[in-house]
Amino acid sequence: MKKTIILLIILVLFSSCDLFKAYQVLSEIVPEPVLPKDYTNDVMMPINEQFAPNIDNTWTFMIVLNGDNNLESYAIEDFNEMELGLYKALLRNPNLVNHLNIIVLFDRGTYAWSGGVPGWDDTRIFKISPDADMGATNSEDITFNYRNNTGAQEEQNLGAPEAFTDFINYCTSTYLTDHYALIVWNHGNGPIISKSMASFSLSISKPNYSISGDDNDGSYNYDECTIKELQSALATTNLLSEKKLDLMGFDACLMASVEVAYQFRDQVDYLVASMDEEGPDGWNYETLFENMGITQGGYHDSRTLSKVMVQNYYDSYKNSKDSGEYATMSAIDLSKIEALKPKIDNLAYSLAASSDRNAIIPIRQDSYSYKDLGIYGIGLYVDCYDFCANIEINYGKESFLGQAARDVIEEFSHSIVAAYGHEDYGHYIGPGEFVKRGLYIVYSNELRGLENLSFIDWYNDSKLDFCKTTSNGITDTWTELLQDWF
User: Fold this and answer.
1) Helices (H), ranges, 175-291
2) Are residues 331 and 362 located together in one domain of the fold?
3) Which of 144, 215, 216, 339 sits most deeply, having the most CB atoms within 10 A of its CB?
């Protein structure tokens, strides 16, 4: 009887040891419950830098103001903001007129918004002139010269890549300056979501991953410029045969994604865009250009300009009643974005190797999402930093997955120049080396019953450079991870 008892005790002890070892193994696989977010949340380091063109660093801003849609009234308002901003800047520094050009390709629609602008509904080009009256416009109409030089029609399709190529070529040949910035003003969709899908259609067969939707392409049909088309348009301009575009800004929703930034790495030095949806008022052009009127100090380079644009957006919305709803802006150094891709692909490999998708789902759902499809409650985009930080918190810094996530975060500290997020998205403002965030990536929050959205097929069909796969039988790119998991 004693032997039996001793044997049972030994078996229990042995089993306990096995169970403890098993627990150790499982604790590496199964995360603890998600902890409260920390890391760079609540980093508040406002950017106190100033930007101003000068005699040695002249600038031309090329603005595609596509108001041939339901945003026409806001386009007119922003046009007036540009005039007022330049007016205030010249009051402070009259010499700025020799160092700064603001050229606007303005397409209007048939929505009958006047806003002080004479009633026309085609496409025209203006050189912004100073004007203090927000109820009227005073800019120089240079449409005749533009059409003679480009052969553009009265009604241009700003959803066509050729419109961008013609506009940039005209500006860079007519206004010879040291630096050029392109701002694209319109609706934005990011790398996969389409206008039709945003209205909750589950039957759409093709996404639009686009920018610059035009309700009248010249034949009263709708068209929009895909991300790939815009990249190709930039690549074929005369300017980019010699150098990169100094800066490109998207005054549009949902354009600050890893996929979009990576696509323009060979054409643009710095990108400014929002992860979240923007408010219809968009950027504050009055203060953006007014602040360029400083007479002493300040910087004149594109990196500083990108940071100032982030700060300007923060200043415009921080005290607004809409601040929580339209609440992010990022500046990205695209010369660093090439190094980010292998880090993200390694994270994809690590996630696939963990075979632990079910444990990742709550981590993804706890991370900040962008572009929720309303009544379906599905977020297609995830804040890349926040997702990686949550992986590291749950798995530990020394784990295989935790280290892969940390590598992505550290690379963000190099590629992000500056970023802002409202308290609903982490509450931060500051330089990239401190906030380490500012780009989302495609990854659904995986709510069940919505697999028929088939968004991964759309992601593949986008033909964006980031979405290319290796076809080596190993899951070692982000796209291949999504293919495996969805």
Assistant:
1) 195-198, 227-235, 258-263, 285-290
2) no
3) 216
Residue 219, SS3? coil
Of the residues 306, 337, 368, the one at which a domain ends = 337
pLDDT, one tens digit per residue, over 300-313 is 999 999 999 999 99
Domain coverage including residue 138: 59-337
Would residue 82 count as lying in a domain?
yes
DSSP string of 102-121, one letter each residue: EEEEEEE-SS---TTS-S--
Q: How many domains does the chain have?
A: 2
pLDDT category, 217, cuts 50, 70, 90? Answer: low
Q: Degrees (nearest 5) of the Cα angle 28, 31, 32? A: 120
Domain match, 458 and 473 both:
yes
Same domain, residue pair 194 and 177? yes
pLDDT tens by residue, 62-112: 999 988 788 888 999 999 999 999 999 999 999 999 999 999 999 887 655
* 7 or 379: which leads in pLDDT: 379
**Sign of the Cα pseudo-torsion (251, 248, 218, 169, in order):** positive
Helix (H) or strand (E) holding 25: helix 2-29
The residue ranges of DSSP E strands in 8-122, in sequence order, are 59-67, 100-108
Interior angle at CA 316, CA 367 and CA 371, nearest 5 = 30
Q: Where are the alpha helices (DSSP H) in 130-160?
A: 143-150
Angstrom distance (rounded) from CA 328 to CA 277? 8
Q: What is the DSSP letter of 160?
A: S
Segment 319-347 mean pLDDT: 85
State pLDDT tens for residues 377-399: 567 889 999 999 999 999 988 89
Return the H-helix or E-strand segment holding 75. Answer: helix 72-92
Q: Are strands 379-383 and 210-214 parallel, antiparallel or unpaired?
A: unpaired
Helix (H) or strand (E) holding 456: helix 455-461
Q: For residue 283, what is the domain's CATH number?
A: 3.40.50
125 residue type, one letter: I
- Cα-based torsion angle of the residue sequence 165, 154, 195, 460 in order, rounded to the nearest 10 degrees: -30
Distance separating the N- and C-terminal Cα atoms of the chain: 58
Does residue 425 sit within a domain?
Answer: no
The predicted pLDDT at position 21 comes to 34
